[in-house]
Amino acid sequence: MGSNLSTSETFTSTSAPAVRTAPVSPFNLLTVKILRVRNARKADLHCYVTLWLPTASAEKVRTRTIRNSKNPVWNEAFCYKIDRRVKNVLELKVCDEDTVTRDDELCTVLFDIDKLTVGRTVRVKFQLNPQAREELEVEFTLQNTLDFPDGIITNGVLVARQVSCLEVRVDTGKLKQQSTNPELTFTVNGSHEGSQKILLASGPSLHIIIFHCIINDQTRLDVILPEELAGGNETEKSGVLSFPLNSLPLQKEIILEEDNSFHLCLTARKCSGDLDVRLGFSLCMEEQNFLRKRKKYVPVVAITTTGGGTRSLTAMYGSLLGLQKLNLLDCISYIGGLSGTTWTMANLYEDANWSQKYLEDAIKEARKQVTKSKICCFSLDCLKYYYNDLMERTKEGHNTSFIDLWGLVIESMLHDKKDEHRLSDQRQAVDNGQNPLPIYVAINLKSNYSAQAFREWLEFTPYEVGLLKYGASIRAEHFGSQFFMGRMVKKLSETRICYMQGMWSSIFSIDAMYVWNLAVDSEDFWCRWTRDRVKDIAEEPFLSVNPYEVDTCLFTPSSVFSSTLRDVLTGRPTIAQYPNFIRGFQLHNKYLESEGFSTWKGTVNSMLFNTVIDSFPNKLMETADNELSLVDTGFFINTSYPPLLRSKREVDVILHLNYSGGSQTLPLDQIAKYFSEQEIPFPKIEISEEDRENLKECYVFEEADSPQAPTVLFFPLVNDTFKKYKAPGVERSPEEMAEGKVDVSSILSPFTTREVCFSEENFDKLVKLTDYNVLNNEKLIIQALRLAVARRKQRNY
Q: In the chain, what are the domains?
């Protein structure tokens, strides 16, 4: 509870990269006194105020209800112990109690405790409605404490605090005989596990359950008793035994309850050792070693692709073949993929030396799979296999959804038997620097928000899975396991690559807002009808301002109509969900000043006001406490650019291989706009209207005034000179002209995204087209590489 202050929390401050430092004294005692509301909006208001400070307590507390008053007065005080190194934002919610329906939430004030001065008491008036002179008056007192902290670990964005492993041992021998209730429920709010139940009907009498929680946090263990025992205990609330955990000693067994019914003991120990989540915006050691082995050539060259189902799967083979014929494939350090191109990449990286071999063999196998009938994927035997594999996956502890079924269908479409490969298996293809490093891309979404309003980039390599914005990564084989505060608390088996492909190309996670944005290029609809109503408000008196403070905000709930509309627009039929590996972390007090975070955080001017959630730490960490909801990157922008633009990768040249349907320039235009808003160095994209109507095979974009911006070679999926030339400089004979007729743009094209099966002729045509488009622009590629070499030398001079 907010009023429980006997806990001694201990931390030290660090800065990125993640390191440990010597102890300091960062704690303060915060007293929040809710005084009154003036000029409430309704005369018959049954008003109360709730308080939530999640960095200090997992529980929400509230005042009593004052009935039928426009000027309710409480004078109720609540106390917290806070750590100044984490971002402490207090939520004050004004509510109207309703005995019949759900209580109305009138408004919420978000207040950064960093605005307060230690040793001072200040009365603050929050203007809820200046026109009606409606205001909430609160008194704050911030005092020093003498608590001596342990260390914390931080990268300047996320903070890992000390975690204790709480072992609860219960002997229910006599309780089984006395109670007809089949279970006991144990709850530690704020822990990873939350609540756990012990079934009394069968099994042994001695039970052991584990909770992982922040060490010395202001929390307690609640035990819900069977009704037969509830009456004989002095409990905080009927039927519940509560045990404060604030002063629980480490490594010592404590007997909490010993009577004729059951025996309850607690033992707490500190979770020691290194974190299982790597905090830092640098590249992992394996990737650094890879680059040292791969970097025989300067500059650093990367390939980015776009999705497009079987079309992109097939076309990518042709592009890579063209690069191989030019002896340029060995110059590539990174290949970024999403959606259908991840199918190509996953197939190639099953061979540890794929780029050292002639790609014709891999293309022949792909041709066999793409041209086979897909009806077999829905045979009775396949359906039984899908069912059994999903059941086995569920037994292992993984979440399952329709996206996993889609992954199994992809497996059947591209393989003749079960594919046992996993992402970490691809290390054998890069450990010696023999192939480019593959980077698969997805985005994490938030419930009730469109991808345009909120998204977080995830990258997947054979070494790590990482959230770009937070500088947090885990080993690839640990993706899908459960984490709390940077520590793996439940290890699950590594997910097979087919399930990952289902998530990377999750076309079934579409929402109505995505369709709307395709049809109407306007931000007004979202902002007017579905966007959160948030505005900055002033405090009286004016409080000190630091660069890293969060502005005081007033959040007003949307109307029933807006909420319903928002649910409809952002509702997704299904989505791939995985445990969030940054669960439990808190945000550093100066996280908004972190360069790594700022690179990827939402901006007010970005597409559809790319959510301001990034400036609301409580909402941000609330998202982190939920499971990752992962979808195809194409639901935001159909591109795999972002991981390649991480500053530590120092990519000089990017070959943009575009395989999208519809407008070929749209993904490039969108990502250029996005990078401009994020202030990420990227060349200006200038293509004349005439060219946009009749695109050439290759365009080069560079930014002479920005040495940090990569040179981009853009290869749209077009049939230009290939119509008349079967090879660079070799014209087609009249008999060969039919082979140059490859329709990749019309609505009657055999290569639309919905097509999952191509004829052998069409497969060959598409591979030859993309192969030719690369070969025919050899001079532009070589020229761009030479220019990039010169620019790198100039930059390093």
A: 27-150+531-557 (2.60.40.150), 163-270 (2.60.40.150), 285-510+572-796 (3.40.1090.10)
